[in-house]
């Protein structure tokens, strides 16, 4: 189970931000996810409690449905 300290919650979606240098990776994954979701009109948030784990909430909109409602 992985947890993220509150001090790191604001930086978790930044490009090349690595919280654990011992873990392999490029530190670009969450940055890309954040930008894809937000550029599509959605949102992503993270709740984490040390010792209990982390919970990501992703909200996306139905672009076709939103477009149909605007045209009415």
UniProtKB/TrEMBL annotation:
It comes from the Bacteria. The keyword Nucleotide-binding applies. Its EC number is 2.7.13.3. It is an enzyme of class 2 (transferase). The lineage of its organism: Bacteria, Pseudomonadati, Bacteroidota, Sphingobacteriia, Sphingobacteriales. The keyword Nucleotide-binding applies. It catalyses: ATP + protein L-histidine = ADP + protein N-phospho-L-histidine. Residues 7-60 form the Histidine kinase/HSP90-like ATPase domain. Keywords: ATP-binding, Nucleotide-binding. Gene3D superfamilies: Histidine kinase-like ATPase, C-terminal domain. It comes from Pedobacter lithocola. This is histidine kinase.
